[in-house]
Amino acid sequence: MLKNFKSGYEVSGSSATARNEKNDCVVRAIANSFGISYDQAHSFVADEFKRVKGNATYYTNAKMKKLTQNGWNGLIEFEPQGQLDLFDNDVKRVDVSHLGDEPKRGGKLINKKYKHKPVPYTVKTFAQEYNVGNYFVLVNKHALAINNGVIVDNGDMQFDGYRRVVTSAFQVK
């Protein structure tokens, strides 16, 4: 069991959109790693990734890499939503950069503890190595966030989800 674990569903809060959603791990991972609300992340994923409500988000890795290289050059802006506060209505800016992919996919995201061959990070070893900052992490058919070494994911992943191989990772500043 992981001690550095937090449920990713907390970001959903009182969102009416989140109550009727499923297959929304990318939405929750973006909300948790970018530090934005669930509704903002939901709109962003629907617009940029063409996600249909209730369906999974396909080709997330390729789309994230394309967005960080071209479209917004890694800088994303989110307008405040909901009731405006005169003192806190600034635009939220997020800078995203691609750290790499697993070695099996030709990437450079290699666990440096192993010298005999290129070995990928697991969720646990990635969280230990990259324990400062926020990260949007992709594993096989799933997405999660790692914030300052704390894994933010589905509650059931606290017990065995830390062994999954990190296929791609993005740093969020």
Secondary structure layout:
Blueprint (H helix, E strand, L loop, with lengths): L4 E3 L8 H4 L5 H10 L3 H11 L11 H10 L5 E4 L13 E10 L21 H7 L4 E6 L2 E6 L2 E4 L3 H4 L7 E5 L1
Parallel strand pairs: 1-6
Antiparallel strand pairs: 2-3, 3-7, 4-5, 4-7, 5-6
Helix pairs in contact: 2-3
How would you state the average pLDDT, rounded?
Answer: 89
Number of strands: 7
In terms of structural class, how would the helical and strand content be classed?
A: alpha+beta
Low-confidence stretches: none
Strand order of the largest sheet: 1-6-5-4-7-3-2
Biggest sheet descriptor: 7 strands, mixed
* Morphology call: globular
Helix content: 25-40%
- Intertermini distance: 29 Å
Q: How do the SSEs run, as a string of H and E?
A: EHHHHEEHEEEHE
Number of helices: 6
Radius of gyration from the CA trace? 16 Å
SS strand fraction? 15-25%
Structure description:
This protein has one domain. A 7-stranded mixed beta sheet has the order 1-6-5-4-7-3-2, sandwiched between helices. With 173 residues, the chain is α+β, with helices and mostly antiparallel strands. Strand 5 (142-147) and strand 6 form a beta hairpin. Helices cover 27% and strands 22% of the residues.
Features:
seven-stranded mixed sheet, alpha+beta, 173 residues, 6 helices
In short:
With 173 residues, the chain is an alpha+beta fold. It contains six helices and seven strands.
